[in-house]
Design goal:
Helix content: 25-40%
Number of helices: 18
Structural class: alpha+beta
Shape: globular
Largest sheet: 6 strands, antiparallel
Oligomer: single chain
Length: 684
């Protein structure tokens, strides 16, 4: 189990020993973290990668650690995030050390991921319910639900028996066994237990499982390989040697370059016009040219050719938030334009060592309206976003194995551009791209606004060479009404407007108390010193808690209707089988409060289905009430004014042995609202 107190790493220690101090800390506390990671990975190579990534992230994020959260809780949150990133769905028990607890491991493996995480954190590692809920970013009430459903599932897997305790009292099991109930409720519960044999048997079997889970042996019996930390230390040593070698290589190149062009560069410094004039003559890409003129990137001019396709890497610009690689692709055989995609055919061989893993690369759509892309039908200038660098500099080892043809018209070009579905070109284009990270500037906003009565914090404005970021926070917790997502309009700084990322890029950061911290991306404002900032809210996506249960009887005739949130909803049909199918519909969308419903189904025995799949149909409705078929492809989404997506038909597929539904539970619903709120902030 994770000890109640763990020694924390101080900034002074890190400054003195560097990342070795974090490695030493994990070596002292490797057992509980190894056991925790084993539930996700079950693979020694991946376990080593898990510790390696966690050490890097703890070292990098340590200056931001706030002591209002316990150190072990902070580290565990980072560790869990890395577990999720590395884990896959198919894990098997391969270690002989698991044999004594194989039944328990197998039962836990049958749980939903979030249930398993709740069980392992609370029972296996010794975190309290409050601490575990903080790590999993759910409310304490939700944590209790996960522990209850998870324990029931484990009990069923281990014993296979069915228990028939009273549903209205089952919610008390967790608090009663952990001695958390208030005295009046406890007395009432015990009086009921005294009279109800079914609840006695149900609670006793439930308690057997919790006691089994509370014992630490099932976690601590896992033996940490002796070479685990030693291998990680060796990796860091090799990484440092490679970094020094690359730095020496870059330094030699820089010295030669400086010697040859010393006179020319000197003239440029004295006249103040060299960079502007030089790049105006020599660089066609307008965005890259602007960045180079401000000395915010590197021009590299690398070229590789394969099967008549020339790929040229023109330049690279990196900061703390992304790495932009500017390229040119020329087809020497045909009049075709090609693009490269980060997630399809582009491989960064040294990504794990060179780049951060807590972000996903931003998507940069092809700019077909740019003058440089109108000059030739066989040449395309574009850029691809990569993850940001871990260190201040390095060499990107980029392999391109596949590129895709652009299409300018037809159904595939609904967004103004498209990709030819069968227009792939394979080849082999390899590059080593030297890159240096550029600095960013942060400005504290410390402003709070309200959206529909819910507070929202505007914390920071970050101006980087490749983007401007607005860091904000929305409250978490178990409220009847909460904001799930905020979309912003234009951001105005010193009378200069920039647009938000049209593909809705949000970066989630480490939560803080009951606040979820996020970042919204805008076009870059680098060079501006903000004095007046205007933030415009575009829309917010709300979740409402509004519970209702509808009894189901498969012997009755359907459809049947019921009222909910001011609407009439139809249960069109119920078909028992494998899977069991329930179809729910509501085609009247005018003035409808909700867009989607939060649903669950309970069976005859009080249990939920083994799993539940869902298919949906829906319509888009614009500001004027005009409806569009989402699947038709005959409209331009970007031109719709304030569109909302209403689900009209939900088909639930319930897995199990001819699962017979007894009750439909509605927990609440989602609804989008468009806003015209504006917040003005002065930084003078």
């Amino acid at each position: 189990m994770i000890p109640a107190k763990m020694d924390a790493i101080t900034i002074a220690t890190v400054q003195e020993k560097g990342i070795d101090s974090v490695v030493d800390w994990f070596e002292r506390h490797k057992q509980p973290f190894y056991s925790l990671g084993w539930f996700y990975l079950r693979n020694q190579q991946q376990m080593e990668e898990l510790f390696y990534r966690s050490i890097i992230k703890v070292h990098r994020e340590l200056p931001r650690y706030k002591k209002d959260t316990s150190f072990q809780l902070w580290v565990a949150s980072i560790f869990i995030d890395n577990c999720r990133e590395l884990s896959d769905d198919e894990v098997t028990l391969t270690s002989e050390e698991d044999a004594s607890h194989q039944d328990l491991f197998s039962a836990l493996d049958q749980l939903e991921d979030v249930e398993k995480e709740a069980m392992v954190l609370t029972y296996g590692t010794g975190f309290s319910q409050e601490e575990a809920s903080h790590i999993l970013r759910v409310s304490v009430d939700k944590m209790k639900e996960l522990l209850f459903s998870g324990t029931q599932s484990v009990r069923k897997q281990l014993y296979g028996a069915t228990f028939n305790g009273c549903k209205e009292y089952q919610k008390n099991y967790i608090d009663y066994l952990e001695k958390r109930m208030e005295r009046p409720e406890k007395i009432e519960f015990e009086i009921h237990l005294y009279k109800c044999r079914e609840c006695q048997e149900d609670l006793a079997a439930f308690q057997d499982v919790t006691l089994m889970l509370h014992h630490a042996e099932w976690m601590n019996d896992l033996t940490v390989p002796e070479h685990l930390i030693a291998n990680i230390k060796e990796r860091f040593s090799e990484k440092e040697q490679q970094r020094q070698q690359k730095f020496k290589k870059l330094k030699k190149v820089a010295l030669v370059f400086a010697s040859v062009f010393a006179i020319v560069i000197g003239i440029g410094f004295f006249t103040g016009a060299f960079a502007n004039v030089y790049y105006t003559w020599t660089e066609e890409d307008e965005q890259l040219r602007t960045l180079l003129q401000q000395d915010l990137g590197q021009r590299v001019n690398l070229e590789a050719e394969s099967d008549g396709i020339k790929v040229r890497i023109k330049g690279v610009v990196a900061d703390d938030y992304q790495t932009l690689v500017f390229y040119e692709i020329e087809d020497t055989n045909e009049d075709k334009q090609y693009v490269m995609n980060f997630d399809d055919g582009l491989i960064i061989k040294n990504e794990n060592e060179l780049m951060k893993h807590n972000t996903y690369p931003r998507f940069h759509p092809p700019d077909l309206k740019a003058e440089m892309n109108k000059k030739g039908k066989n040449v395309f200038y574009g850029k691809v976003g990569l993850r940001p660098l871990e260190e201040d500099s390095g060499v990107i080892e980029m392999n391109i194995e596949r590129i895709q043809e652009l299409v300018l018209d037809g159904h595939e070009a609904m967004l103004g551009f498209g990709y030819r579905s069968n227009g792939f070109k394979t080849g082999e284009w390899k590059f080593e791209i030297p890159v240096t990270k550029q600095p960013s500037v942060e400005y504290e906003l410390n402003e709070q606004a309200e959206i529909e009565g819910i507070p929202i914090r505007l914390d920071k404005l970050i101006i980087a060479p490749t983007a401007t970021l607005l860091e904000y926070a929305i409250p978490m917790g178990n409220q009847d009404k909460r904001i799930d997502q905020v979309r912003f309009g234009d951001l105005e700084v010193n009378d200069v407007k920039v647009k938000p990322d049209q593909f809705g890029v949000y970066q989630h950061l480490q939560p803080e108390h009951n606040w979820q911290i996020l970042q919204m991306y805008y076009d870059s404002l680098y060079g501006e010193e903000p004095k007046d900032v205007i933030v415009q809210f575009d829309s917010a996506y709300f979740s409402y808690e509004d519970k209702k249960s509808i009894e189901l009887d498969v012997t009755e005739q359907y459809p049947q209707t019921f009222e909910y949130a001011g609407s009439t909803i139809s249960i069109d049909k119920i078909e028992i089988g494998q899977p069991t199918t329930i179809v729910i519909s509501n085609h009247e969308v005018e003035n409808r409060e909700f867009e989607t419903l939060h649903l669950n189904v309970v069976g005859e025995d009080g249990n939920e289905p083994f799993s539940m799949g869902m298919d949906t149909e829906g319509v888009l409705v614009d500001k004027n009430g005009v409806q569009y078929d989402w699947n038709s492809g005959t409209f331009d989404y970007e031109k719709l004014e304030q569109p909302r997506h209403f689900v009209t038909v939900q088909t639930l597929m319930l897995d199990g042995d001819k699962f017979i539904p007894k009750r439909l539970d509605i927990y609440g619903y989602n609804s989008m609202k468009y806003l015209d709120d504006v917040v003005k902030i002065s930084l003078d």
